[in-house]
């Protein structure tokens, strides 16, 4: 055979191969666009043919804003975001998906959140496994126990008071430009408070976030970040892979760990692990009443072995500490940017809350501020995914067949312009009965709030988180520590992974 014949056979073979690949790709793509049981649901064509689009926006941390923009572009409440996955922006779907009869089952992506070999309350798909553990620890989140922790000598009360003292000391140093320090990072301070509250309240021993650098000069303290941060940010960061199928996830996770192996993360994870191991060790041999009083004690009394109790304790430290600190620092950030709101809040506290006889949640303006903070904070901005059971459901007149993965996202719900006009602005007044529209919007706003998720698999720590938020906002506002401050960043920018990351890991303020 001549060289010419060889080359022309090769070209023909390449043509065939390209043609064949094209057909192999085109057939499933055409099926997914025109014949799939979800072919009637609007969405961009590339999302219909492959999950790659969803994986990429998840990885890049832009899932919330991109999906919201496609809901608007396609003018639909039910959007196809992957061949078998939908985003829903209709608040009437929250009840059937998350609440009725315990809600739909979590989808397999939650297995990517397991604590290594252990399944957590959060990552469990099997509801029996989850319910047994959740039942063991549920009494710890009762309002009566929380109220006691907010009274004098209670762990929440004490931690919040120390947080404000630290804030005031940092302010004094930054105002006098001690050793060149001029800014205070509220996110870091809030993280220190939150880890101390969640550990002190649930594990009966404070991690020591607020005091870990007390021996250092104040200017050095201000510059240093919480020792558990690197561990927390590493967990947040790996959720960028959370939508991948388990096998690809494990591969991507171990590869990224190897490439980005980092001593700081290892040191930080070891510190949190040592702490959790310590509290579990000290719990072995506790009295019955002490067991009753701690998260790890209750889990072990239920039958969880100590090494699993260590992992579950690390899991709850992460779940509790990060989201509350993001929410608290978001609220404080807006109070700095809008001093008029700070003044209204202070007036309400001075007028109606001096004797501390009532529950802070009954103060209308304070409640509005906290609600608006929860709306905007985006601690968990993306879809809480669930699987449609047999029989399917109909949402906004769109039939959704069984086995479809569906989810509502706080980013889409909380930024719905029809429900929350000027959705990206911090406007607590919108929650007041006399907030300009006689409270007419309020029922729809309430229905659209998803900060803590909804139903049985909604946030187990909601009461604890809210208590800490109310106590801290009152204490900060009363202390006047924010007076005269201005924010260094103009706005809060987040990376929209399953747990949001505040860009740059800081929310700084200064006193010019
Ligand atoms: C402002 C603070 C918080 C926010 C915004 C928040 C948000 C959420 C959301 C949205 C979910 C449901 C996710 C889903 O359906 O996929 C959730 C679940 C959960 N949260 Fe929170 N959370 C906060 C504080 C806490 C605290 C303080 C704790 C515990 C100390 C906690 C522990 C959990 C656990 C264990 C679950 C899983 C519940 C289950 O699946 O049964 N969270 N949280």
UniProtKB/TrEMBL annotation:
It holds the Pfam family p450. Gene3D superfamilies: Cytochrome P450. InterPro entries: Cyt_P450, Cyt_P450_CS, Cyt_P450_E_grp-IV, Cyt_P450_sf, Cytochrome_P450_monoxygenase. The keyword Cell inner membrane does not apply. Its cofactor is heme. PROSITE patterns: CYTOCHROME_P450. Keywords: Heme, Iron, Membrane, Metal-binding, Monooxygenase, Oxidoreductase, Transmembrane, Transmembrane helix. Heme binds at residue 459. One of its GO terms (molecular function) is iron ion binding. The chain crosses the membrane at residues 14-33, 45-62, 226-244. Belongs to the cytochrome P450 family. This is Cytochrome P450.
């Amino acid at each position: 055979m001549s060289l010419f014949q060889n080359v022309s056979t090769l070209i023909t073979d390449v043509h065939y191969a390209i043609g064949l690949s094209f057909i192999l790709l085109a057939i499933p793509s055409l099926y997914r666009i025109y014949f799939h049981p979800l072919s009637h649901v609007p969405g961009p064509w590339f999302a219909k043919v492959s999950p790659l689009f969803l994986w990429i926006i998840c990885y890049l941390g832009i899932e919330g804003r991109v999906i919201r923009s496609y809901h608007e572009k396609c003018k639909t409440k039910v959007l196809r975001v992957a061949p078998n996955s939908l985003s829903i922006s209709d608040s009437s779907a929250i009840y059937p998906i998350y609440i009725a009869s315990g809600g739909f089952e979590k989808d397999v992506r939650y297995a990517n959140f397991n604590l290594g070999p252990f399944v957590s309350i959060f990552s469990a798909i099997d509801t029996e496994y989850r319910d047994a553990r959740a039942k063991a620890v549920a009494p710890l989140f009762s309002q009566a126990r929380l109220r006691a922790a907010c009274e004098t000598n209670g762990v929440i009360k004490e931690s919040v008071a120390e947080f404000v003292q630290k804030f005031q000391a940092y302010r004094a140093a930054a105002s006098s430009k001690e050793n060149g320090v001029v800014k205070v990072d509220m996110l870091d301070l809030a993280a220190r408070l939150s880890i101390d509250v969640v550990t002190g309240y649930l594990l009966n021993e404070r991690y020591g976030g607020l005091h870990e650098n007390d021996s250092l000069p104040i200017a050095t303290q201000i510059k240093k970040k919480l020792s558990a941060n690197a561990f927390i940010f590493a967990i947040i960061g790996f959720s960028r892979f959370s939508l991948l199928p388990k096998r690809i996830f494990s591969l991507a996770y171990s590869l990224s760990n190897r490439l980005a192996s980092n001593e700081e993360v290892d040191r930080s994870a070891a510190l949190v692990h040592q702490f959790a191991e310590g509290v579990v060790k000290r719990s072995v041999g506790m009295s019955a009443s002490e067991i009753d009083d701690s998260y790890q004690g209750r889990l072990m009394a239920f039958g969880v072995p100590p090494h699993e109790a260590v992992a579950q304790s690390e899991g709850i430290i992460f779940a509790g500490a990060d989201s509350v600190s993001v929410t608290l620092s978001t609220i404080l950030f807006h109070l700095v940017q809008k001093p008029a709101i700070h003044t209204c809040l202070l007036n309400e506290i001075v007028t109606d809350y001096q004797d501390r006889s009532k529950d802070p949640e009954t103060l209308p303006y304070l409640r509005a501020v906290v609600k608006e903070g929860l709306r905007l904070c985006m601690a968990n901005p993306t879809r809480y995914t669930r699987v449609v059971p047999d029989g399917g459901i109909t949402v906004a007149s769109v039939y959704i067949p069984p086995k479809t993965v569906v989810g509502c996202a706080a980013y889409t719900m909380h930024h719905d312009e029809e429900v929350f006009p000027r959705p990206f602005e911090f406007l607590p007044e919108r929650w007041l009965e006399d907030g300009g529209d006689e409270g007419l919007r309020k029922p729809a706003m309430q229905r659209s709030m998803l900060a803590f998720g909804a139903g049985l698999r909604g946030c187990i720590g909601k009461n604890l988180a809210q208590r800490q938020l109310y106590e801290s906002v009152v204490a900060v506002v009363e202390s006047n520590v924010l007076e005269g401050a201005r924010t260094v960043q103009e706005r809060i920018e987040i990376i929209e992974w399953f747990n949001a990351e505040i860009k740059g890991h800081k929310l700084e303020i200064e006193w010019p």
